From TrEMBL, chain A:
Residue intervals passing through the bilayer: 17-34, 46-65, 85-105, 112-133, 145-168, 175-195, 221-246, 258-284, 304-329, 349-365, 377-397, 418-440, 446-466
Membrane topology field: Multi-pass membrane protein
Source organism of this protein record: Natronorubrum halalkaliphilum
Principal location class: membrane
GO molecular function terms noted in the UniProt entry: symporter activity
UniProt protein name: Transporter
Cell compartments where the protein resides: Membrane
A Pfam family hit: SNF
Keywords: Membrane, Symport, Transmembrane, Transmembrane helix, Transport
Entries under InterPro entries matching the protein: Na/ntran_symport, SNS_sf, YocR/YhdH-like
Family statement drawn from the similarity comment of this UniProt entry: Belongs to the sodium:neurotransmitter symporter (SNF) (TC 2.A.22) family.
GO CC terms, sorted: membrane
PANTHER family: TRANSPORTER
Automatic annotation (TrEMBL), chain B:
InterPro entries hit by this protein: DUF8026 (IPR058339), SAM-dependent_MTases_sf (IPR029063)
Protein name as it appears in the record: Uncharacterized protein
Source organism: Natronorubrum halalkaliphilum
Upper classification of the organism: Archaea, Methanobacteriati, Methanobacteriota, Stenosarchaea group, Halobacteria
Domain of life of the native organism: Archaea
């Protein structure tokens, strides 16, 4: 392994449950609550479930195993892990790409967390069941109030900084072991409430009705692919970072792969069961995205018995889902920068959170900017980051080596040789396909141009930074782990 | 509106495929964790590979003698063999015969 001076002994998860909840807390976000139920219902219901489940097992489960295993094998954050694999030099900049994508992602995700915080606070004030409440003006009132949005964005990043400063075990773990179960309980209670409403069965029929012909539509598979890859957070550096804090005898494939992918998706399924019976019982058309959470649902609470309490369950649960994701997304940068620089963890947290806060101001100011960045990074930035991580495992380290040395060591399930070609060929090919597909679909648009700039500039920037940083003092080292032949 | 058998069947399948598998994985991994803790309370070290995984590791070491990671792989293999020989309680399902037949590489 390359020499990186260690400042202190590396932190570890205090419990297995803490690690598992950190994985789920990181991966369950806004997409599970406001996107998954609608995408499922709108793409053939049960047919979508089958497509999604297939892709989850073929791509997301093996991919997450690989990413967690790389973190556990190197015991380092993103940049350190890349250095261990590719050796010192400009190529470590591929890790910088992951870092830049994460920071960009968090810069516009923080305002999304801010929305959920605002709605959670108002649910506690019973605003949604107050006389004269109107959902749409309430939402646009928030989006148009730049000062309020910036204030909320500041509160979110300040809260994340306050928790991250406490460290992995005392900060992140202590929060997620309560927040994730609380989210599940909130959705379960909401599901029970929804299913006991007259007319709730229409929501179940919309979501779980099987339209087999959808399995023959490419759109269904593209939607399932996007959900399977991006909802699980594969290739964002989160699984790598969380995995780097595993203890000596911890398992990777069962907890980091199977449980994370299935558990995270299960919350999307639960959200569908919680949301659509209520929406259909009241006779409102379902929507996707912010419209579903902040307009459709906000409208139904006054119309159902105990609506004020259901609103609290939903919006507080929604806030917990987004907040824990934000926490772990930010931790990716904190972990690796704290390792790579002379700064203490506290200084790094403040620097990273301050930087993200600054970069997030445009998205907090304008929802249009947020939408643009979400489209660009969702369609090109995140696949690029995933390509970097899975690519470096598949084509530099070699999947067979990682499988033997990290995946199957102390493992709760045995991962066979079938895993190697999935990591080496299938996932990178899918990532390239996604980037090409969305470029083709949006050819010539401002979003596509932005996406192409990310694809071209981020690797160049990363390579340039690390060439300067790592190249000082002579020729770059050869890789610790030169290319695998498997 | 009455739900059709197909919708109910898909609902049951979905719950089983997602919540069922996730719950199985959660319970299994937490039980394994409990067992590991129990073993480590009685002895300092624990076997790190299952019989199938250790056999694959051994095969790889023998087939890739010039690989830059072969020393690390050999070390992990031999460490597991030593632990299996020196300890009474094992995490994986090793028989005495299998342990007797193990050799360092």
């Amino acid at each position: 392994m390359a020499d990186v001076p260690a400042k202190t002994a590396r932190a570890e998860w205090g419990t297995r449950f803490g690690f598992l909840m950190a994985m789920i807390g990181a991966m369950v976000g806004a997409g599970n609550i406001w996107r998954f139920p609608y995408v499922m219902g709108n793409n053939g219901g049960g047919a979508f479930v089958l497509a999604f489940l297939t892709l989850l097992f073929v791509l997301a489960v093996p991919g997450l195993m690989a990413e967690v295993a790389l973190g556990r094998y190197t015991n380092k954050g993103v940049i350190g892990a890349f250095r261990d694999v590719v050796g010192r030099g400009g190529m470590v900049g591929l890790g910088i790409v992951v870092l830049l994508v994460n920071i960009a992602l968090m810069s516009y995700y923080s305002p999304v967390i801010a929305w959920t915080l605002y709605y959670a606070v108002h649910s506690l004030l019973f605003t949604f069941t107050a006389t004269g409440f109107e959902a749409e003006p309430f939402m646009t009132g928030l989006f148009d109030n730049a000062a309020l949005m910036i204030g909320l964005h500041t509160v979110v990043m300040g809260s994340i900084a306050a928790i991250l400063v406490l460290g992995i075990r005392r900060g992140v773990e202590r929060l997620v072991v309560y927040a994730v179960p609380a989210l599940v309980i909130a959705l379960v209670v909401m599901t029970v409430r929804g299913l006991t409403l007259p007319g709730a069965s229409e929501g179940i029929a919309f979501t779980f009705g099987v339209q087999w012909e959808y399995l023959t539509y490419s759109d269904t598979w593209i939607a399932a692919l996007g959900q399977a890859l991006f909802s699980t957070g594969l290739g964002w550096g989160i699984a790598l970072t969380v995995g780097s804090y595993l203890r000596e005898y911890d398992d990777v494939p069962l907890g980091g792969g199977v449980f994370t992918a299935l558990g995270e998706s299960s919350i999307g399924i639960l959200a569908a069961l919680a949301i659509f019976p209520i929406v259909f019982a009241v006779g409102i058309e379902p929507d996707a995205g912010a419209g579903l959470a902040f307009v459709s649902l906000a409208q139904v609470f006054p119309e159902i018995p105990f609506g004020g309490f259901v609103a609290i369950l939903f919006f507080v649960g929604f806030f917990l889902a987004t907040f824990t994701s934000g926490l772990l997304i930010t931790e990716v940068s904190v972990t690796t920068l704290a390792e790579e620089t002379e700064f203490s963890r506290t200084q790094t947290v403040l620097g990273v959170c301050g930087g993200i806060w600054l970069l997030g101001l445009p998205s907090a100011y304008s929802a249009d900017i947020l939408d643009y960045l979400d489209f660009v990074f969702g369609n090109w930035g995140l696949p690029l980051a995933a390509l970097m991580i899975i690519g470096v495992i598949g084509w530099v380290l070699g999947p067979e080596r990682l499988r033997l040395l990290a995946v199957n060591q102390n493992a709760g399930i045995h991962v066979g040789r079938w895993w190697n070609p999935v990591i080496k060929y299938v996932i990178p090919a899918v990532m390239l396909f996604i980037m090409a597909y969305f470029a083709w679909e949006n050819f010539g648009s401002a979003e596509m141009i932005g996406g192409m700039l990310v694809i071209v500039l981020f690797p160049i920037i990363g390579y340039a930074i690390m060439s300067v940083v790592e190249g000082r003092g002579g020729q770059p080292d050869t890789a610790e782990i030169p290319g695998g032949d498997d | 509106m009455a739900l059709t058998a197909e919708v109910l069947g898909m609902l049951a399948f979905t719950l089983l495929a997602f919540w069922g598998v996730a719950a199985w994985a959660l319970v299994r991994t937490l039980r394994q964790e409990g067992r590991k803790v129990e073993i480590l309370e009685r002895q300092e070290r624990m076997d790190t590979y299952s019989p199938a995984a250790l056999a694959e590791l051994r095969e790889w070491v023998e087939n890739n003698p010039d690989d830059p990671l072969v020393d690390e792989a050999r070390e992990r293999h031999n460490e597991c063999v030593e632990v299996l020989r020196q300890t009474d309680r094992h995490f994986y399902d090793w028989s005495d015969g299998e342990i007797d037949r193990l050799e360092r590489v």
